[in-house]
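Handoff note, outgoing to incoming analyst
You'll be picking up this chain. Sequence as last confirmed:
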Amino acid sequence: MADDSLYGSLQVRPSGWDYFELDDILACQEKIPCTFETQVKDLGFLDHGSDSEHIEPATKMELPFWLAKELCARQRKIISVELPKVYREAYRQILEADATAVDLNKLGPYFYSVGGKLLEFGNAENPRIAETLMMTYMKRMRRLMDLSLNKLDGSKESQTLLPKLDHDEHNVFAFSQEGLREFEQWKQGVISKLTSSKTVINQRKRKRTEDN
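Most recent structure output, in case you need it:
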């Protein structure tokens, strides 16, 4: 059984929290499978597989997350949301078997962000999804940090790993590599002062914003 504390720790923030962050905007554009629960008049042209003037009940369509959330948030639900296949049980088992071998970028460039956002829909599988996201991140992060803090991105191992990373992992790798380069330059006397990483700086800025 999934640990409810993991599920709770991955509860997503309000959708407006990252309104001005480009990465969050792009993640909200990712499409998720939906089924219309009621007729929507005059929008049948959106369903390329139908000649109807309207979108009829039981019509299946992929919609961007931001739109699906709005259509689900109304008092009378217009759509119901299904889990994208990469978050279903079959893929969760693959990740649990060997998360480090999976090409997350192929599953979705914003795998973690979209997975976290899916928790907003109150699916019965939410605890398992949250557990898998947390487990996948922790297992992959060990290898990612070991590589990014010990070898610069020109290495063969780095070139093999980079195409398999999701966007968040790419950012972690890039920030770690920047720190490693500065450390090497400092050891060689090229620079005289080490600076805080962008990750730390961004966390400080966000904390100041929250405090205000």
